[in-house]
Amino acid sequence: MRFNTLTIQNFLSYGPVQEVCLANQGLVGVFGANTDSSFDSNGSGKSAIIEAIVWCLWGGTVRGLKADEVVNAQVGHSCEVTLTIDDGDSQYKITRYRGKEDVKKKNDVLVELNGVDATQGIVSDTQAFINNVVGITFDTFSQSVLLTANTKSFCTLKDSEQKEVLEDILNIDMLRRAQAQAKKEISKAEALLSGHLGRLGPIADHIAGVESDIKTLNAKSDTWERESGLRSERIKLSIAETQASIDGAKEAAEKYVELSERVAELKGEASEIEEELEGRISSIGTVDEKVNRNMRKISKKKIEQDTVVNMTRASISRLSNLAGTVCETCAQSIDPDTADEQIQSLESLIDDANDTILNLVMLEGKLLAAGEAERAPHEAELGVLRDALRGLNITRDGLEVEEQNARSKASFLPSYEQRMKDLEDAIGSKESTANPYLELIESGKEDIKNRKKDAKLLKNKVKAAELELKGLRFWERGFGNKGLKSYILDNVVPFLNKRAQKYADIMSDGALTIRFSTQTRNKDGSLREKFNVSVVNANGADVYKGNSSGERRRSDVAIGWALADLAATRASKPIRFRGLDEPFENLDAEGIDAVFKLLQSAVTEYETILCITHNSGLKTRFTNELHVTKKHGSSTIQQ
To answer: What is the mean pLDDT of residues 210-216?
Structure first.
C-alpha cells in the first residue's frame, strides 16, 4: 500500500490548501522555520504533517487532540484533510473535514474508490471501511509507522509498562475480555452451586419435620393404646380431624396434578434447549478440532525447523574446529577460507529456518484468532442458552419440591379415607379398631426414605457444579498474566531479538548487543517471571544506564524500530511509509551517522521516510527536502 498525496486545509497551523507528495520520495528531511517566534523551527507545523495523515485516516491525533481542537484557530472552520492511497489496482481518496460550511453535515468523512463514491451510510461504518482498507488500527499505526524521540525509553519502563506496550502491539486485549467472561461464568456457577446447596437445607428440614411428626404419631399411638377403653367419646373428634386431613389431602392431590403438568412442560422446554446446547457445543468442538489439527501441523513444522537449526549449528561448530587443521581421513589441510564459505552458507540456512519458525509462530496467532472469531458466536449463544436452561431448571426444581410435597400429602388420602371408614364403623359398633397411627407412621418413614434419595441426587448436582467451577477457575488463571499472555510473549521474543540486533549491528558495527527476555535471574541463580531488555556495549558498559546518552539513544532507536516491526506484522497490509519525529535528538555526529545508516538501509523497504528535524545542518544527508514555514500564524509547505 502506498500513500500518494496529502492535502491540508485549515488544519492546526495550516490555513490555505497545502499539498505534499508522499509517493516514492526516499529519505525526506522535514525542516521548519517559525518566523512568528524566537523558537526557530519549533512550532512551525512540521509534526502537523504526520498528525494530518493520522487524523484523516482515524479522526484522532498522536498528541490526543479532540474535536474542534484540530481546526485552525485563526480561521475557526472548514478544516479539511485529503489523503490518496494506491493499493494494487485500487485507488482510494479519503477526505475528512470538520466545521465545514455550506454543507448539511459539518463533520464527516468521505471515501472514493477508483473515482466512485464509497462512503457508507454512517460515519462509524465509513470508519470501519477505512480501517479495512488500511488494514491497521490507530494504535498499531502510531507504534509501527511513526517513531518519535519524545517517547519514553522502553528500557526505562517498568516490567508492567513494558508488557502493556507489547500487549497493545499484539492486540491481546481479547485475553482480558476472556478472563472477564470467565469471571462472569464463575459468578453464575457459584450462584448455581449456592442454589443447589440452598435446596438441600429445605429437604433436611422436611426430613426433620417428618421425623418429628412420626415421634408425635408414636406418642399418639401410645396414648390411643392406653385409652382404647374410652374410644367412644373421642371417635367424633378423630372423625373431625380425619375429615380435615382428607380435605387437605384432596387439595394437595389437585395441586399435584397442576404442578405435574407444569413440570412436564418445563422439562420439554429444557429438553429443547439442551438439544440446541449440544448442537452449539458440537460446533465449538469442530472449530477446536480444526484449530488443534492445524496447530499440531505447525508445531511439527517448527520442530522440523528447530532440528535443521540445531544440526546446522553442530555442523558450523565442527567446521570452525577443523579450519586450519589437517583432515584425519585424507591428510589434506582444511582451508579456513573454504570452511568460512561453508559456515556462511550454513548460517544462511539457519536464518531461513528461523524466518520459517517466525512465520509459523505468526500463523499460529492468526489461526488462534480465526478460531476464536469462529467460536465467538457459538459461545455467545451458549451463554444465552445456559442462562435460559439454568432459569428453567431453577423454576422446575422449585416446582418439583412443591410437587413432591403435594404428592406426599396427597398420598395420605387413602389412609385418611380408610381411617374415616373405620371411625364411622366404630361409631356404630363401638368396637375397638386397629391403631390408626401405625399406617401413618409407616407412610412417614417411606416419605423420609424418598426424601433422602432426593438429597442424594442433589448432592450429585453439587459435585457437578463444583467440577464446572473448578474448570472455570482454571481458565480464569489461564487467561491471566501467567497463562496465555506469558506464552505469547515468549513466542515474540525471538522476533524482537533478531530485529533489534539487526538494527543495533547497523548502528554500532556490532558493538551493541540487545536481548529481550521474559525471565530474570535472581541472585541465587533461580529464575522469576519478569520482562527485561538487556543492552551490552562491547566498548562500554554492560547495562543500559551505564552507557552514554548517545549510545542509549542508538539502543532506543534499535529497540523502537524492532517494536515497530512487530507492530507492523499485526497489519494486514504493508504500508510503504514511515514517519520519524526528531530521531537525531541527543545524538553526536557519530550517532547521527549511525541512525542515517539505519534509515538508508530501510528506504528500499518503505519508499518514503519522512524525517522531522530542527537540525538544518543535515540537509545534504537527505534524498529530498520538505520545508515548512510559519508566518503570521499560518504554515506553508515547500517541497
So the answer is: 90
Kindly state the cell numbers that stand for 328: 584425519
Q: To 10 degrees, the CA torsion angle through 155, 143, 512, 162?
A: 20
DSSP state, 629? E
Q: Report CA torsion sign: 490, 492, 498, 503.
A: negative
* Location of C-alpha cell 539457519: 350
Phi, psi angle pair for 536, to nearest 5°: -115, 125
Give the phi and the psi of residue 225 in degrees, each rounded to 5: -65, -40
Q: What are phi and psi of 512, to 5 degrees?
A: -95, 135
Residue 376's CB is within 10 A of a number of other CB atoms, namely 13
Q: Note the maximum CA span of the chain.
A: 133
Q: Which residues pair with 534 in a beta bridge?
A: 515
Task: Give pLDDT tens digits for 507-536.
Answer: 888 899 999 988 877 888 777 778 888 999
> Do the beta carbons of residue 303 and residue 353 sit within 8 Å?
no
Helix (H) or strand (E) holding 94: strand 90-98
| Amino acid present at 344 | Q
| pLDDT per position as a tens digit, 417-449 | 888 888 777 766 655 567 788 888 889 889 889
- Residue whose C-alpha cell is 419440591: 401
- What number is the average pLDDT over the span 97-106? 84
- How far, in Å, CA of 397 to CA of 253, rounded? 19
Q: How far apart are CA 336 and CA 356, in angstroms?
A: 30
Q: Which residue has the cell 579456513?
A: 336
Phi, psi for residue 139 in degrees, rounded to 5: -65, -45
Contact, 81 vs 55, CB < 8 A?
A: yes
Other CB atoms within a 10 A radius of the CB of residue 616 amount to 14
* H/E segment holding residue 531: strand 527-537
Q: Would you tell me how many other CB atoms lie within 10 Å of the CB of residue 45?
A: 26
Distances 414 to 207, 247, 250, 305, 420 between C-alpha atoms, Å: 22, 12, 10, 82, 10
User: Which has the higher per-residue pLDDT, 83 or 154?
Assistant: 83
CA distances from 430 to 99, 231, 416, 419 (A): 106, 8, 19, 15
Instruction: Indicate the SS3 state at residue 158.
Output: coil
Half-sphere exposure of 137 (CA within 13 A, CB side): 10
